[in-house]
Amino acid sequence: MNVVVCVKQIPDPAAPASLDPGTKTLVRAGKLIMDDSDNYGVEMALQLASGEGDEVTLVSMAPGGETSGLRTGLAMGAAKAILISDDALAGSDALGTAKVLAAAIKRANPDLVVMATESTDGYTGTLPVQVAELLGFPSVTFAKSIAVDGNSVKVERQTEAGYDEVVSPLPAVVTVTAGVVEPRYPSFKGIMAAKNKPVDNLTVADLGLDPSQVGAAGSGQEITDVSEAESRGSGEIVVDEGDGAERVVAFLEQLKVI
Amino acid sequence: MAIDKIWVLAEAGDGGPTPITLELLTEARALAGTVEAVTWGTETASLAGPLGEYGATTVYDVGDLGGALPGVPVSAALAALIEGGNAPDAILIPATYDGRDVAGRLSVKIDRPVLTNVTGLVAGDDGLSSQHPIFGGSHIVTARFTGPGPAIFVIRAKSFAAEPSGGAAAAVVAAPAPDTGAANGAKLVERHVEERSGPKLDEAAVVVSGGRGLGDAANYALIEELAKLLHGAAGASRAIVDAGWVPYSHQVGQTGKTVKPTVYVACGISGATQHLVGMKNSKNIVAINKDADAPIFSVADLGVVGDVHKVIPKLIEALKAR
After folding, report:
1. What's the ipTM?
2. How many helices (DSSP H) and strands (DSSP E) are in chain B?
């Protein structure tokens, strides 16, 4: 079974983020890391593709030929990666990104595509379904468990009130939430092996896509303003000296909820 | 550019349209002359009344999906309606699990982008703009579509207040989904609804939520007990949901529920961006956390810097004694 995992290489969320005042896009400086949300997808894929002849391929789109985040996934055990890197992709919106990823995923001829429900830094949350639609695959989003059985995949999909059991034929796109599995830490051996695993570098032209469909040129949306939100009036902060609970009770009484 | 017509993706819940459906219809009414709804399922006939009461004049009925997940067939029906020359200026879609699926699929079918995480809409000279909270809600980004419509907006719950217009029942027009082939292969086998006592998390007047600061899964019982004493609902941060302490249906935040109660009590929650966007608009916020620098205190009306393991049991004791 071929499993593709889409991974996003993002600036470390622990580092402060900012918006470029000119272009009003997220500023991405420094070394990129694999989005923490993607650890779960990579782990799930490795568990599902653990049989003879099974293979996990990572697919990522990132500027400047960046592979530092991909190496994390390769060190965990993925066999190879496809990286799409092209100056023409700067400023891509989710739909443009989906077109690029879908074209690259096709090359890996997957039985299953696993993605995080949303990235940590951009969180539009529609990209996996856009990829599925472009590939003509069924999709099951917000999976809390996945089991492959022959030519179908059984998923427990979280809902507002509980979960749904869903069955889909393969190939399919499934998105996983954090916590679905416990991601492994790359071993020293894995880290060393990852350095020599193949990364296929592709451009927009390699994928046969029209440059006018992707990047800022293909983006059908723009940011017109960024402003500070109306802040809540600063409240009262007290240090508990045994009277913390009383203060809360008094506050609730004042609001007449008790 | 005048906004003539808006569609709202109408979802059905227990015995009628979901609260967010009514919120979106109310906002659509304020923005456009004509408001229409698109819905699906087996009970659609009973929705014509309530959807009309909130301003929809027509309900496009995709009908029974035969067990398929809504994303593929409902987006296909929407695309067919648009191709049929019926396109609205904008489509408002609830930020729910199914809503996002419909939005993503539709986006590809009509080759238009989607703007997600919308919490406000503004009508201007050049069409509709949408507002999006970023950095945990400290800043608001305003965005708009640059190409031809229809514009697809995915909107968070409780962004608008629902108010009936007193309109007559909407006319129901059948809008069956065209054949979508292999893409429509995912089928619902069985629904599992978690048992709940007390009010719904996103409708409760009081919400008590717990986070990593509780230290251990067993301590979540304190949150449930406190919520019960306050006749409220128990919520959770993503951290403890991911850790498996409580089910996803309790999650408040970006990927969980948006709540706007009279009082929100955050216990042992640091206040990550992910969490703040789901509760920041609560009318009153109480935070109990031992870290005085926790971001949650920046939105608290009353902040108690203290150990939740000491403060909560005392609070429970005091409430029981009343």
Report:
1. 0.90
2. 8, 18
